[in-house]
Specification:
Family: Belongs to the carbohydrate kinase PfkB family. Ribokinase subfamily.
Number of helices: 10
Radius of gyration: 18 Å
Bound molecules: alpha-D-ribofuranose
Helix content: 25-40%
Strand order of the largest sheet: 5-4-1-8-9-10-11-12-13
Shape: globular
Order of helices and strands: EEEHEHEEEHHEHEHEHHEEEHH
Number of strands: 13
CATH architecture: 3-Layer(aba) Sandwich
Binding site for K(+): 251, 253, 287, 290, 292, 296
Pfam family, one: PfkB
Function: Catalyzes the phosphorylation of ribose at O-5 in a reaction requiring ATP and magnesium. The resulting D-ribose-5-phosphate can then be used either for sythesis of nucleotides, histidine, and tryptophan, or as a component of the pentose phosphate pathway.
Binding site for ATP: 189, 225-230, 256-257
Structural class: alpha/beta
Strand content: 15-25%
Largest sheet: 9 strands, mixed
CATH superfamily: Ribokinase
Length: 304
């Protein structure tokens, strides 16, 4: 019998079109860049692939289009041994696409055409209920409709499943309290934590204040990812700071997604929060040393 704990990822899948340049262009400006790279992306799919490569038993719930990008994506999920029972194919919209520009420091700028991702409905979540009910962890992001994310969080929480939300991309309006009340672990970056808390984060103290405020919304564990500054976590009234592994960043795309996928795997294997964050940080630090989203995500054997 398979005793591995199941991880359900609900979210977006995109095809990323990436160009590296010395710097990011200003509005109205055309600049000449370097090589072009096309690879699989999307915050949901990146987290699903990260969790699968790092040793998790993963089911991915998403919507793709009935087109060449969608077909290639589905084939890739199979190669990664991700359960695709609840990958829906819609004839209504094209598969998601992201245009990404990466500068010489590895920072990026991303614009997403959501397409099929925007059709992931409450009906789709209801249809996937058998998978959600068998999960030990459900993780979601904000590249699919918020009503579906909220519905899935409520469904999972009701059954005592750990609900993780990576509130990315940064929300444009306050997240519904109904969603936050059903989240066990929130993993924002600094910008996202500022938006959710309404506080400006300038140092350790302000980060802690923002975390306390977010936690007061009913969230047990909050982890702010801070890039080269590491991660600051809060659980049971205690803060833990985990420094980042020092690496030369080439492209930070999907670093947060790799962290989230890694954290799910480590928690599903029974690691405590601190060890899970160390595992996730290691995986994420490897991903930033390589170009691209899913092409940059490491395998379990690369994590020492
Ligand atoms: O987090 C990185 C991802 O954001 C990219 O792969 C892109 O597709 C967007 O969803």
């Amino acid at each position: 019998m398979d005793t591995k704990k199941k991880i359900v990822v609900i979210g977006s899948s995109n095809t990323d079109m990436v160009i590296k340049s010395d710097r990011l262009p200003k509005p109205g400006e055309t600049i000449l860049g370097g090589n072009f790279l096309m690879n699989h992306g999307g915050k949901g799919a990146n987290q699903a692939v990260a969790a699968a490569r790092l040793g998790g038993d993963v089911t991915f719930i998403c919507k793709i289009g009935n087109d060449i990008f969608g077909n290639e994506t589905l084939e890739m999920f199979h190669k990664e041994k991700i359960d695709t029972t609840y990958v829906g194919i819609t004839p209504q919209e094209p598969s998601g696409v992201a245009l990404i520009n990466v500068d010489k420091k590895g920072e990026n700028c991303i614009v997403v055409a959501s397409g099929a991702n925007g059709t992931l409905s409450i009906d789709d979540i209801q249809h996937a209920e058998p998978a959600i009910k068998q999960a030990s962890i459900v993780i979601m992001q904000l590249e699919t409709p918020i009503e579906s994310v909220t519905y899935a969080a409520k469904m999972a929480k009701k059954d005592g499943i750990t609900v993780i939300l990576n509130p990315a991309p940064a929300p444009t309006q306050q997240l519904p309290d109904e969603l936050l009340a059903n989240v066990d672990i929130l993993i924002p970056n600094v910008t996202e934590a500022e938006i959710i808390s309404g506080m400006h984060i300038t140092d350790d103290e302000s980060a802690k204040e923002a975390i306390r405020y977010i936690s007061s919304k009913g969230i047990k564990t909050v982890i702010i990812t801070m890039g080269a500054k590491g991660a600051l976590a809060y659980e049971n009234n205690e803060f833990i700071h985990i420094p980042a592994f020092k690496v030369e960043a080439v492209d930070t795309t999907a670093a947060g997604d790799t962290f989230c996928g890694g954290l799910c795997v480590a928690l599903s294997e029974g690691k405590n929060l601190k060890d899970a964050i160390i595992f996730a940080s290691k995986a994420s630090s490897i991903s930033v040393t390589r170009m691209g989203a899913q092409v940059s995500i490491p395998l379990r054997k690369e994590i020492q």
